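Milestone 3.1: sequence recovery, worked example.
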């Protein structure tokens, strides 16, 4: 091909040049050297379809070359011997749209430091260029709909399946969805103009540490002007540990030359993310098409690195800081004490707040939360947001159904049947019937009513330290509440079995079972026994399998039903099994579901057997206005699908095993970490004064949680002595997040032990 380039240079431009092919895609590019010095670039485009666009590109470059206030060096189209700047060259069967541009010297910005001077010069360069381009609106450019124009970036979302790493697919899907939420509605309000649209590090040239030139106008677009900066910044930020500072330097300099509008600043964060998403999707797709071509995916690895850190950059803070640095005002940040006072005017103090200085939250993104002070937190605590904050699939499922139909179970609609079928398929026989409600409490309440109706008696057996809900029945069966502050003790019809705690209990499981047996002998036949698999409020205490199996046998021998509360442990959280009871080798008669079921959308359910359902059909209707509505069903179904498709249960097991391993290493080093217990992404870390006495150390647990919050990690404490730190993050929490948590925890424990 190089000889062809030499021949064209000779034949059409009377140039005696050497030719060297350059990397690139789209066109074939040759560097032409005359007398040993690079002077021109010969470009051959195989596709005839691009002729209109190439004419427009040449016209734009020609126009720019005639302007007085040049931003720097730009390619200038050269005329051939016939005076033409674009012509067809025919070689055998192939014809090429051919043109020659002046060669732009300099070092690619990819190869130099991205310091303040360089970044500010990039801002100035692009600002000058964009202001010069303002009068131009080439029809061939405006007509083109292509993926690299950010107004069409959602076209690349279809390539998400080519990304083979679920963790990454999820981030890209999240940012595409945020583009949909935050950018699309703004698009008609953004000013439009012709832009270069590809100021990446291999198109920007520098001399003496400043931007001196720009090449390759092949991605030119007539689009929102701010896209120029979004694209340039997506690449510039790949080279820094402080992307916000990079953005500020480039934008400040741009703004001085060519003022930005406030609304342009407001969209920049998600536009940069969208450009990165386009890039990784196109890389994945290209790799799928051309597995051998390395150049195509040149920016794939840094784009992923940046996306993974971008999601940890608080978008609200990003916008505020950028506005301030460009001279716009921002509202004063909200004051937590004032908000607390306001809250108390209308809300009961019985609603507690986490942390002595409570968080004001503004947004969430998968395992991260953004607060009003500009912090980003790693959420290691919220097991309601099972799949991750604002998971795009759940958001879209809810929005779509909300815009279509919401009604109640007195009508037929397919989503209810579909969801009930999908949910009951997750249970072993004979658990085939589902009642939908709106919370774990409502589910627990109904579960007890079902058991009592079936048995025609009231007596209930519960597990020590258990919690099942906030309704009257919920409190009646929650040892955590009726024995806690303000509690009145167990009601007459409720008896409590001792919780076997592998860390603290004296005696064997057999001893405990004997105790249960003796207790049950003294009681009337119970309607039911209710317990969680891992007693959350009791301090994340897993009930040993043989203990639970023994209790189930005793209860059933007395004619009672067994109820499993899976509100905390269900939906794959434990890693090994979809339901906690499966890990203990029992099959309950009734199951209570809640929290993770709707990824934050308030849904709960009771799953049970045909005989229990039939006994409840006594003429009194069961109706929940919201339970099982189409929106809830759409969301619940999507949650089930995502757990499956993102392989979340297996991932939880892997991440959880790693977490356990790391925490046990810490426990071996610091005896104050008395016990590490759990499974999957559901763990308790028990803090004690020392390993011998096992005296609970609630202050240390509270201090650690408070300090970790300052370090950007959210956790909580629980247990009868408030000395257990609970770890139950969204299921997208991964091993890098574990490392972050372990490092900080190790640091704090080391300080505390001094
Ligand atoms: N059961 C268990 C085990 C729970 O942890 C909870 C809530 N913490 C409930 C039931 C009640 O669920 P909700 O708060 O959704 O009413």
């Amino acid at each position: 091909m190089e000889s062809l380039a030499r021949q064209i240079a000779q034949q059409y431009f009377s140039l005696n040049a050497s030719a060297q092919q350059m990397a690139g895609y789209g066109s074939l590019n040759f560097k032409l050297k005359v007398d040993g010095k690079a002077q021109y670039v010969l470009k051959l485009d195989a596709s005839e379809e691009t002729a209109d666009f190439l004419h427009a590109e040449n016209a734009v470059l020609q126009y720019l070359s005639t302007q007085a206030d040049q931003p720097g060096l730009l390619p200038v189209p050269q005329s051939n011997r016939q005076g033409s700047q674009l012509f067809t060259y025919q070689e055998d069967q192939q014809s090429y749209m051919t043109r020659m541009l002046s060669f732009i010297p300099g070092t690619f910005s990819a190869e130099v430091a991205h310091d303040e001077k360089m970044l500010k010069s990039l801002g100035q360069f692009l600002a000058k260029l964009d202001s010069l381009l303002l009068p131009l609106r080439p029809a061939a450019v405006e007509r083109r709909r292509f993926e690299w124009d950010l107004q069409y970036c959602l076209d690349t979302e279809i390539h998400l399946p080519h990304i083979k790493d679920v963790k990454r697919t999820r981030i890209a899907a999240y940012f595409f969805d945020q583009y949909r939420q935050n950018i699309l509605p703004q698009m008609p309000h953004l000013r439009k103009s012709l832009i270069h649209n590809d100021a990446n590090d291999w198109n920007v040239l520098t001399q003496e540490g400043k931007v001196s030139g720009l090449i390759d106008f092949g991605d030119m677009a007539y689009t929102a002007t701010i896209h120029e900066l979004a694209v340039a910044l997506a690449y510039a930020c790949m080279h820094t540990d402080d992307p916000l500072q990079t953005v500020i330097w480039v934008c400040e300099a741009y703004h001085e030359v060519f003022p930005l509008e406030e609304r342009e600043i407001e969209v920049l964060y998600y536009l940069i993310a969208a450009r990165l998403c386009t890039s990784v999707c196109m890389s994945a797709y290209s790799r799928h098409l051309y597995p051998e071509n390395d150049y195509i995916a040149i920016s794939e690895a840094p784009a992923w690195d940046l996306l993974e850190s971008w999601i940890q950059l608080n978008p609200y803070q990003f916008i505020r800081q950028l506005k301030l640095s460009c001279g716009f005002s921002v509202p004063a940040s909200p004051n937590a004490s004032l908000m607390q006072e306001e809250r108390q005017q209308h809300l009961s103090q019985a609603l507690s707040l986490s942390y002595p200085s409570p968080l004001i939250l503004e947004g969430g993104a998968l395992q991260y939360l953004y607060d009003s002070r500009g912090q980003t937190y790693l959420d290691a605590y919220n097991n309601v947001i099972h799949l991750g904050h604002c998971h795009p699939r759940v958001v879209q499922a809810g929005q779509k159904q909300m815009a279509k139909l919401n009604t109640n179970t007195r009508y037929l609609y397919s989503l209810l049947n579909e969801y009930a079928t999908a949910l009951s398929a997750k249970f072993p026989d004979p658990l085939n019937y589902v009642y939908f409600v709106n919370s774990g409490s409502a589910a627990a309440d109904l579960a007890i009513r079902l058991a009592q109706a079936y048995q025609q008696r009231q007596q209930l057996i519960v597990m020590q330290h258990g919690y099942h809900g906030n309704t009257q029945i919920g409190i009646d069966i929650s040892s955590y509440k009726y024995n806690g502050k303000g509690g009145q003790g167990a009601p007459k019809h409720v008896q409590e079995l001792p919780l076997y705690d592998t860390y603290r209990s004296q005696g064997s499981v057999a001893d405990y079972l004997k105790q249960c047996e003796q207790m049950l002998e003294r009681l009337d036949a119970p309607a039911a026994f209710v317990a969680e698999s891992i007693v959350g409020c009791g301090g994340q205490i897993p009930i040993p399998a043989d203990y639970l199996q023994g209790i189930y046998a005793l209860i059933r021998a007395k004619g009672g039903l067994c109820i499993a509360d899976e509100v905390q442990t269900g939906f794959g959280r434990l890693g090994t099994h979809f339901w906690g009871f499966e890990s203990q080798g029992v099959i309950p008669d009734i199951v209570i579901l809640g929290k993770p079921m709707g990824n934050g959308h308030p849904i709960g359910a009771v799953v049970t057997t045909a005989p229990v359902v039939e006994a409840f059909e006594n003429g009194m209707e069961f109706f929940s206005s919201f339970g099982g509505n189409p929106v809830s069903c759409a969301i619940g179904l999507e949650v089930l699908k995502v757990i499956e498709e993102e392989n979340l249960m297996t991932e939880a097991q892997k991440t959880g095993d790693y977490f356990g391993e790391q925490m046990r290493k810490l426990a071996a080093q610091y005896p104050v970490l008395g016990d590490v217990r759990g499974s999957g992404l559901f763990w308790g870390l028990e803090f004690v004064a020392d390993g011998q006495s096992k005296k609970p150390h609630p202050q240390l647990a509270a201090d650690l949680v408070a300090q970790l919050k300052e370090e950007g990690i959210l956790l909580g404490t629980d247990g009868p002595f408030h000395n257990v730190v609970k770890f139950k993050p969204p299921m997208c929490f991964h091993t890098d997040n574990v490392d972050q948590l372990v490092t900080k925890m190790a640091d704090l424990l080391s300080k505390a032990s001094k």
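The first strand starts at residue 18 and ends at 22. Residues 262-289 form the longest helix (28 residues).
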